[in-house]
Amino acid sequence: MAQGPRYRRSFPLVLIALFLYFTLRRTSSSASSASSSPPPPVDNRYPPVSAHSDNPTTADHGRLWLAFHGILRAAEPRCKSPKRIEDHPSAIGFKPDEVDHVTLPEHIIVETEDREILKKAHSRFTSLLSSRTAPKLRYTPGTKGIVSTAGGRYLPVLVTSLYMLRKTGSTLPVEIFVADKSEYDEYVCAVLLPSLNAKCVILADILDYSPLDEGLKKYQFKIFSLLFSSFEQVLFLDADSFPMHDPINLFNSEPFLSTGLVTWPDFWQVTYHPSFFHVSSQQIPTGFSHASTESGQLLVSKKSHAQMLLLSAYYNFYGPSHYYLLLSQGHPGEGDKETFIAPALILQLPFYAVSTGPAVFGYRKPDGQWEGGVILQANPIWDSRLPKGKVYGWGGKPSAPPESFMTCHANLPKLDPISVFGEKGLAWNAEGKPQRMWGPAHDMVDKVGFDIERRLWGELRTTACELEGKFVPWNDKPKLCETIGQFLKHMADK
Description:
This protein is α/β, with parallel strands linked by helices. It has two domains: 50-353, Alpha-Beta Complex (Spore Coat Polysaccharide Biosynthesis Protein SpsA, Chain A); 359-490, no CATH class. The chain has helices spanning 4-36, 58-74, 112-129, 155-167, 186-195, 203-207, 221-228, 248-252, 256-259, 274-279, 306-317, 319-328, 341-346, 380-384, 417-421, 441-448, 452-467, 481-490, and strands at 50-52, 83-84, 108-109, 137-149, 174-178, 198-202, 231-237, 241-243, 261-263, 297-301, 352-353, 359-364, 370-378, 405-410. Strands 1, 4, 5, 6, 7, 9, 10 and 11 form an eight-stranded mixed sheet that branches. A four-stranded antiparallel sheet has the order 8-14-13-12. α5 (186-195) links the parallel β5 (174-178) and β6. α17 (452-467) packs antiparallel against α18 (481-490).
C-alpha cells in the first residue's frame, strides 16, 4: 500500500508517454503512406534520363544497357514490316523556297492493323522512358570529344581521318567504337591511337551484359556509340568524315550552346511516311523547314538531349524492320539519317539544322561519268549568323563562300592508302600516271580556301608508312609508303 501514491503520481506521465508514442506512430505511418503513393505525373518531354559519373566504366554502361534492352524488348512492335512499293524511288531535291508546303511521298504500304500495333508499341516505349526508374545515360560531366565507329580492315580509313583532324591543331579526345574483339587491331588500338589522344572501345563488352539475338547491323552502330561514349558533349564523325578546321569552337558557340543538337543537311527533301506521325501521336506538318539529314556528322549534348538519344535508339533498334522505311521510304541514304531530328521534334527539344546546302567534290570514272564522292558541310557558327532568308548552296542559290565550310565527308574513294594509291586507285589515270582525284587545285582553293586534297595525300602517306608491317590485314597487300612519297614529288607543283 505504501507504493500506491507513487504509482498514482506516475500515472499521468504514462498517459503522456502513450499519447506521444501513438501520435508519432501515426505521423510516421502517414509519411510512409505518402511515400508509397503513386508519384506525381512526370512531364514526358523532360524525364530524368541523363546522369553523370566521374569516369563511367564498362560496367556502368553495361548496367545501362541491361535496363534499356529490357525496355526496348518490352516495346517491340510485333507486326509486319512496311511493304515497299518500289525499291529505289526517284529522289526529291530539297527546295528552300518551298518549305511551307511539302507533300510527303507514299512509297510504302503500312496496313491499318500494323499501324495501330506500331502506335501502341511506340506509346509504351515513351511511357517506360518517362518513368522515374528509366535508365540514365552515363558520361563524365564537362567533357567534350569526338566519337566514331570503325573496325577491322576499315581502321586505316579512320586513322587517316584522325591524322586529318590533328592536322587542324585539334587536341580533342577521340573514342572509336569497334564491334567486337575480331574488329580490334592490337597495334592500332593499343599503340597508335593512344599516341593521338584516341582509344578503342569494344562495343561487345557492353552489349554482352544483355546479349542480342543478332548482332548490330550497319546503321545501328552510330547511336550505340553515342549512348556509350564517356563525353557529355559529342561531335560524331563517320570514319570517312573529318573537319577541315579545328572543331573546338563548335562546342563553345551558337547554335550549339542554346540548342544542344546540331545536324547537317543532305541534298533531299524529308520523306517521312504519313503513317509515322500517326504512330508517334503527332499531327502531320504542312511543311518542313529543314532538308533530310546527312548524318556523317552530328553534334549533340548527352546532358540536354538524353531522351532524344534513347528514342533515336528505339528507332534504330527497330530500324531495319520498321522505322528506316517509315522515315525514309527507300529514298537516298535510308538508314539512321532521319532518327535524330524526328525524336527531337516529338519531344519538343531544340535543335539547329544547318541551312546551307552541302557542296561536292567528285571525279570522272573511266567511262567518263562524273561521280560525286565528297560532301562538304558548312560551319554551323557561320550558318547561324546569316541574315534571315539568306540561303546558300541549293539549286538557284549562290555558292557558299570558302570560309563557310567545316567538314569533309569522303565516301568515294575510301580514304585508305590502298583504295587511293593501289593498282586501280583514283590517284592514277588510265595510263598509270599520277593524277588529282577531286579536280584542279585552284577549284579547291576557290571552294574551301585551300588545297584539301594535297593535305590528304600527305596524311595518307603517314597512314601507309605507320601501318606497313604492323597492321595485320595488310600483310598480303602492296607496300605503298615509298610509292606515295614518289607520287608527292611528282605532284609537287600540280
